[in-house]
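Agenda item 2: 2-aminohexanedioic acid complex prediction
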Amino acid sequence: MIRRYQNLINGKWVDAQSGKTYENRNPANWDELIGLFPKSGKEDVDEAVKAARAAFEKWRLVPAPKRGDIMRKVGDILVDRKMEIAREMTREMGKVLSETMGDVQEGIDTAYYAASEGRRLFGRTVPSELPDKFAMAIRVPIGVAGIITPWNFPMAIPTWKIFPAVLSGNTVVFKPATDTPKTALTLVEIMMEAGIPEGVVNLVFGGGSEVGNAIVEHPDVDLISFTGSTSVGKQLSRNASETLKRVSLELGGKNAQIVMDDADLDLALDGIIWGAFGTTGQRCTATSRLILHEKIYDKFMTMLVDRTTKLKIGDGLLPGTEVGPCVNESQRKTVQSYVEIGQREGATLVAGGSIASGNGLGKGWFYEPTVFVNVTPTMRIAKEEIFGPVLSILRTRSLEESISLMNDTVYGLSSSIYTSDVNKAFVAIRDIKAGITYINVPTIGAEAHLPFGGVKQTGNGHREGGWTVYDFFTEWKAVYIDYSGKFQRAQIDNY
Ligand code: UN1
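Presented output:
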């Protein structure tokens, strides 16, 4: 019996109005059908937005600390159900169980942060120019937030957006990636169980061009928070401009790790293996380029190829697995096509380069962790986001050259340098153009309470995470209170 799941609109579970569904399958074993989910359309989005708009008028009046109490309960339930949710997540998107547990943990951390922010949401008071007059700026909720999320962090990324949105007093229409509907459904169920009122969080399943776009173009949606590819982000931004929405975009990356000749090489090796092949390279923070100092090049490459070829590929639910499958067939095709492009461009494969076929891998979208050398900065494998287990190596002679290679990309999300020289570390912090710079840490593993986002074509200037995301989900209102009892003109009108 195949389970058929539904959208959540105004607190009720409902089918797509068209009655259509799509299949959710396990990328480690495509024969395994997880369930059927609504293939929704514009008419379903209309209903969800109507519900969110109506709910906003009540929700905005609930005191923020009370909204925070609900967030704390959401965190508590996530703690209780962490293992079960992680298993479900590995089954629907493939990354290994320890990583899906980390994904849930990021949601837990974000929930507790939101709970505490309910008692802050700081505004400012400032002096007025005039006597007996008080001036302040307060944060107010904005309205209906459209939340559009990817499949690589099916719990963490929705929580980064939805928790601060609702804590700030907004209501939500949530469209998760088609590859990871089950985790999204669990998150929304938990929010309802914790006491989120009907209509505050609405969930609409379906594709980007139908559901996502209907949210983006809807005149009654006030803001959009999106994580995904740069090409979709650009199109989304154009579509949202018609209604002048506030839009937060977290887009692509071509993150690099530098290893200097003075680095601890064992440490740098652990870093690159985790950064490049953790989550099968499917993080927007994944390390896709390694910039190696010529003095340690040969030694480090031997170490790297040895470790890469020993990584254990398999079903993420099996103990000992280090690298799970790509999320679906088309993602694996993209990876394979980039490997072919790299070879055509003249780069040399020193590890991987093929579909992984061993025991038990035949029914999933597995791909070998892959390393290219003889890569030049103009090759497509050195420039374009691949979103898979493919690492390009660049050789360098100095810190300056390393940083210039690092910055030679249209993206600017994450960056890392391994060095034992504090002076070099500080130059790197100053000169690398990225939203995140790690010293002796891989490019992945951002903490939930720090600003997360990138420069250049990685985004449009907003940050998720920590206190900074609350700037996106609130509007500033300036307030003046004159208690002089007299008519006073502002300074500009009487100076
Ligand atoms: C992403 O890949 O879209 O920094 C997010 C990290 C995680 C989040 C990644 N905390 O690697």
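Discussion summary: Residues 255-439 form a domain with the Aldehyde Dehydrogenase; Chain A, domain 2 fold (CATH 3.40.309.10).
Owner for follow-up: CH.
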